[in-house]
Amino acid sequence: MLTGCQRPPAHIDIALIDSGQTALAQFSKYDIVNHGANTPSEHGTMMMSSILGVNSDSQLDPASLTMHSYDIGDAPSASDIANAIEAAVANNARIINISLGVRRPHAEIEKALKSAKDAGAFVVAATGNVRSLAPDYPARYDTALSVAATDANGECWTGNPCDKADLTEAGVDIPVSKSNGKVVEESGSSIAASETTRKIAAGILSGRIKDASKFESSQLDG
Q1: Which one of 42, 106, 115, 122 is most buried, counting C-beta atoms within 10 A?
Q2: Which pLDDT band, with edges at 50, 70 and 90, does 89 fall under?
Q3: How far apart, in Å, are the Cα atoms of 48 and each of 7, 80, 194?
């Protein structure tokens, strides 16, 4: 864990726990390590493009990070999620993005989140597009940073529960890359979480964000 007297890290590891992604030309400069089958999918590709910022004016420097992609499919079980979190921790991920979830609590997920917390990792989890219902797991656990989507005016996107999230982030009409390379605008808590992951990564690399246990949302904006 960094302390105030240390310099910001020159390189960090980020984990994306999702479905697989297409190897787009936009991603070619990045060090992406695939864990699992990496069956290309729209969701995983869009989340990867959002985290890297390839369609934004805040693209992450390829030299500053390694992306670890854990393909757990489009309909993962709680055990799939937990195992991927544990693997990400073992691979020294500083940030773990989970833009998916399950509706019921599960001891394995809770245990894996504790491992991530003990390792000092940020676990950024989408609330799920569940309207006014309680967020999905793992977002509903206190050991994850739950994120819901707002629009450009800061208004809550009606598809997710902003009042039940730890923080909100722009997640409406965000440009993302699809599997065919086409850039489209998409909305949802998944994208809000991946946008948050990119901001946390930028904050860690700049030295503005140092400690997951002392993180405050105001640190995202400098």
Answers
A1: 122
A2: very high
A3: 27, 19, 8
